[in-house]
Amino acid sequence: MYRERWTWRRIQVTDNGEVLKTLPMRVLIAVSLFVAQFVTAQDVHVRVSPDVKTGIEGTTEFPTIQMAMDHHPFAGVGKNGKPGRVYIEVAPGVYHERVIVTQNHTNITLIGKGKSPEDVVITNSLNAKQAGGTFFTETVEINGEGFEADNVTFENSAGNTGQAVAAAVRADRAVFKRCRFLGHQDTLFADYGRQYYVDSYIEGGVDFIFGNAAAVFDRSEIRANGPGYLTAQSRTSPDQPTGYVILNSKVTSGIEPGAPRDTISLGRPWRPFSRVVYINTELPANVIPRGWNAWGRSGETPQAYYAEFKSTGPGANPAARIAWSHQLTPQQAAQYAPRVFLAGKDRWDPVAEAQKLP
Description:
The chain is an alpha/beta fold and 358 residues long. It contains seven helices and 29 strands. It folds into two domains: 41-204, Pectate Lyase C-like (3 Solenoid), CATH 2.160.20.10; 216-342, Single-stranded right-handed beta-helix, Pectin lyase-like (Pectate Lyase C-like, 3 Solenoid). Helices cover 13% and strands 33% of the residues. A twelve-stranded parallel β-sheet has the order 4-3-5-8-11-14-17-20-24-27-28-29. The chain has a seven-stranded parallel β-sheet with strand order 6-9-12-15-18-21-25, with no helix packed on it.
C-alpha cells in the first residue's frame, strides 16, 4: 500500500544528547501547528443566546451568560506581547441569572447585540434580608481585571425592599459604555480599582452608587427614583487615590409629583474620608440646598471631600452649600479628568479604551 513518506518518517527528540523517544513526523507537525496557533492566538469570540441548545460541552456558543463565563476558551498572547480579549456577544433577551466573573477571567468584554441596552437585560431579585447581607445580593459580580461591557442592562428587581445590588465591580481597569444599572438601594457597588462609566444610566434611591473605587461617570444620567442619597463613597484615608467623579453628566429625578422639594442629597460619607466631585453636571430642583449630608455626624467638620465645579440646573446652588464642601477652580477640576484621575502608574487611558468598543 502506498503511504506518503512524510507520514511515517521519524526523527529523534533529544535532551542533553540523550534520545528520549522517536515520534512520527505527522505528530510533530500537528504539535507544531497547535503551538503556533496558541502563540499567535489573540481574541476569542463567544456567542450567548437562548436559542443555543448545547451545554457545558460547547466551546463558542452557550445558552446562558454564566455558562459562557465558566467555559469560554482563554485568549492567547499576540505577537506584540499583549494578551487578547474574550468577547462574549449576547443576543437580545432577558437573562434571569446571576453572573460571577472570577479573578482568573481577565480581559472579558461583554457586548449586548441589541439596538439598545434595553434589549439585553441581566436580572435577578435578591435583597439583603433574603441573602443574609448586602454583599450577597448582586446580580452580577465582577472581579477579573480589564472587564468591559457595552450595551447591556444590569438589574436587581427587588425594588424598595432594602439593600439590593445590581452590579458589584471589584476590577481594575473596568469600562462600561452604554450600560444601564437598575435598582433602588445600593444599585451599583463600585468598590475597587479604576472604573470608567460613559454614556450610561444609573438608577436608584438610597446610596445607590457606593464603595471605594476610583470611578469616573462621564456623560451619564444619574436618576433618583426616590428620596435619598446619590452616592456613599467609602475612602478610608486621605492618601487613597479613590473617589467618584460625576463629569459632564445629568442628575434627574423620578420622584412623584407632590413629594417634598428637597429630597436628594449629592452624597454622604459611608467612611470618614469619602470623596465625590461633580463637574459640569446638571442638577434637578430636588437637590437639597446644602448639597451634602454628614450621615448624622454633628459638632465636628467632616473629613470627607465633597466638591463641585460649574454645576448647572435648578439644583445648582453654590451659595447655599454646606460650609465644608468645596467649589473648585478650573485647575483643581482638571485633576479629575478621566485620563488624569484614572491614569495610575501604568498610564491607563480609559477614554481610548472606551472608544475601541463598538
